[in-house]
Amino acid sequence: MADDRPFHWEYQEPPVEREAFRVEGGRPLRGEVPVSGSKNASLKLLAAAVLTGERCRFTNVPEIADVRVMVDTLRDLGVVVDHPGPNTYEVAAGDVDWLFVPLEAAAKMRASFILLGPLLARFGRVIISNPGGDRIGRRPVNLHVEAMERLGAEIAYRNGYYFARAPGRLRGGLVTFPDVTVMGTENAVLAATLADGHTTIRPAAQEPEVDDLITFLRKMGADVVRTAPDTIEVEGRRRLRGAEHRVIADRIEAGTFIVAAAVTGGEVTLRNAPCDHLGAFLDVMDRVGVSISREGDDISVRAAPVGEYAATDIETAPYPGLATDLQPPTAVLLSRAAGTSHIHEAIFEDRLEWLEELRRMGADVSIVDDHHASITGPCPLRGSEVEMSDLRAGASLILAALAAEGESVIHGAHQVRRGYENIERKFLDLGARIEHVSEG
Ligand code: EPZ
Known about the structure:
The chain has helices at residues 39-48, 65-77, 103-108, 116-123, 142-150, 182-192, 208-219, 251-263, 279-288, 327-334, 355-360, 391-403, 414-417, 423-428, and strands spanning 19-24, 30-34, 56-59, 80-85, 88-92, 100-101, 125-129, 154-158, 161-165, 174-176, 198-202, 223-228, 231-235, 244-246, 267-271, 291-295, 298-302, 314-315, 339-344, 364-369, 372-377, 385-387, 407-411, 433-438. By secondary structure, the protein is α/β, with parallel strands linked by helices. It folds into two domains: 19-36 and 249-438, Enolpyruvate transferase domain (UDP-n-acetylglucosamine1-carboxyvinyl-transferase, Chain), CATH 3.65.10; 39-246, UDP-n-acetylglucosamine1-carboxyvinyl-transferase, Chain. Helix 12 (391-403) links the parallel strand 22 (385-387) and strand 23 (407-411). Helix 4 (116-123) runs parallel beside helix 6 and helix 10 runs parallel beside helix 12 (391-403). The structure holds ligand EPZ. Ligand EPZ binds at residues 39-40, 43, 110-111, 134, 137-144, 179, 181-184, 324-325, 347-348, 391-392, 419.
């Protein structure tokens, strides 16, 4: 009998564990680059699909390592995940075998914790590992746990695992956060969709990925409304239905390629760019003097001669403020600007350490404390051997290497595969000299 299982299109990741990029810098990037689907929307959408037993279909999902970690985690739970073609995933959580999210998943990716809310809401219990994730700060999940408890969950913590249960059913309530938390908001929204009664969440994160999740939940029949910029209200339902959804474009990838054009003296057009989600970042580009025009979903970037960029101060903030994930790429641009720029990284407590690697490439960097640094330019960057510490710093080291004179070797390249689809192919298509080097 023919195998009637759907064809699984499996992305073949490079076989090496340790890998590096070798980059020959000093070449202007020119051409067009497609912006992929959002990593930070996709991971939550895949998790949301466990709220129903019906099939959900997602398109424009980026082929990146973090998506594969989430898919593997869902499959390990017993959830059916089909991958019928590139960038397309179908999820059917008819039932699950285990309600256990292991350390292996959490150690690879903090976002595995987003399964807490939907599994608790749908099945009433889950054992989930305390996540590891990026090295950018303590990264606790206390606000997620407190939100679940506000919705009636009982959660105990033992030996690195949260043992969560919802006697009967979660019940709606008031979930307040001391500060904005993106995934804390998302976990609360996901849990509330099946809770008994009304839930109010504030301050609720305003990131576009949160609204993309809300759009999908409403397609599933959930009653979720953003009633004020920082408030989300949910009326719980008994069950939700399957739905289809196209993931929004990745604003962090878009910002990364805008800086790539600006620091290499190039001229690049981004296709399918999330122009409406880049307001604060485009304001910074404007202050620095990067020439940007937009037409529909296309953003065109024309670099100014190095030295003509102006220094400016930046401060990261929850959306609609400047995204903390765009602080590292912006720092590379500021190293090319005339004058001293001050960086206030207000969200995470050690997302500035990577600037030491930028200093090795010649940048005039001063790290004041966990949240403050300054950069004086314009500084000629020179090719060097450097190491990626996390996803966003890693992508930023590639930008610096592309701008630098000479050859760079960037170790830890697997970091960028977590969140940037086909990154070296996209740079090669723009005329960059970048190659993947296995390190055995
Ligand atoms: C999301 O992380 C993103 N990740 C991050 O992107 C992004 O940098 C961050 O939001 C801020 O925009 C995903 O969506 C998968 P937070 P999240 O909760 O939700 C503290 C990337 O590279 N906090 O908004 O984990 C926390 O330590 C990643 O794509 C608590 O104290 O971030 C931080 O200082 C990096 N307790 C602040 O809140 C908690 O329970 C904001 O974190 C939760 C958070």
